[in-house]
Design a protein that fits this description.
Elements (H helix, E strand, L loop, with lengths): L2 E6 L2 E6 L5 H22 L4 H40 L3 H25 L1
Antiparallel strand pairs: 1-2
Helix pairs in contact: 1-2
Length: 116
Amino acid sequence: MPDVTVTIGGRDFTVACQDGEEPFLRTAATMLDQEASALVEQIGRLPESRMLLMAGLMLADRTASWEERARAAEARLAEQEGKAAEASVDPDTLQRLADLAARAEAMAEEAESRAG
């Protein structure tokens, strides 16, 4: 189990993770560090636990917002899929249209051959 040292809000932390998870841990730590660094800039030095709590809450809030957006997008997609299903043409109508198109092409070919 590898140990990874990450910096969050100007403080170093050593965290253990499973083999192969190091890139994911570093990415998550970078996200947390961005929030923590913004807090430190705005408020100044905070106790470690408070800094981590507030940065975590800020990330959770952002995540909740994205989840809400994803749910809304999924609902719009489902609505559009429903509309598309309602607008679909039954197979008999498609066959009749194909037959009409074939007849129109045959008539056009006959007209061309008579004209030429």
